[in-house]
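Human: You know discrete backbone vocabularies at least as well as I do. Show me how you would write down a chain together with its backbone fold. No explanation is needed for now; the record alone will do.

Assistant:
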Amino acid sequence: MTTSIETFNLTKRYPSQSKEDHSALDNYALHVEAGQLYGLVGPDGAGKTTLLRILSTVLNPTSGSAQVAGFDVLKHSEQVRSRIGYMPQAFSLYPDLSVLENLRFFADMNGVPREKQKQRISELLDFARLTEFTSRRSENLSGGMRKKLALACAMIHEPEILLLDEPTTGVDPVSRRELWQLLAKVIERGVTIIVSTPYMDEAERCDVVNIIYQGKKLISGAPGDLEQQMPFKIVEVKARPRGTLRQAADSIVGVIQWRAVGDRLRLSVSNPMLVQENMKAALNKAGAEITILREARITMEDVFIYLVEKQEHPV
């Protein structure tokens, strides 16, 4: 397949009050194939925004190189910009302009010929379900509608690559789902998308996931493949009283670690069947009421937590 985006030893350092500069990116390697929905997954401060700003030519790297659509981001920035649509995390539209005026402005900025603008804007208004709101000022839109307008503006010039920095942060669950439905339609058109997100359920939607932490790549691959690579299985258990459940999880042989998710615990184990038997015996002996006790599939959240804790607490 054709390579859409690639970086080599990409490093970005920012001045720090300490003697050494802070590295937002540290020899970062990235390889994105054309037509992929590629997820950058990591917590706040991991380096996701810095990486996207370099790829969009907004920021220069300290060292290393990056190519977007076959063009070097430093040597051929104009060619890169004409081929990408960039949606920053912060609201980047003009609040005093209407939906239609914002689309016209970005069409002009990106060199869309006037004779093509009417059709293109009409398509995007329908695509983003904003046709009924063309005269509304963007500052008066809901959070989800603002995000959809920002996505439409990023797509106005029909870019072959979209760089989206946490596009669903700060919006309600319904708007999040709508945005991902829109992205699915964009992918069907053959557009390459890099989307950064702190949400593990969104990572599950991506073709490839790249987990970034403190400026370094921890792992990359298809979500299903990454989940299968983990050196543990998951047992899910729900019981009352919760204090008794937690005490049992701390004492059962075979439990590597556990974490609470809502009203239940997810246990990382090496032998699911043995742990289930031991947990059942311990909880019954303590007089606890067991509601759920079963093996569950590993999720991207399990993968992420395992890898991050491994970095923070190396053996």
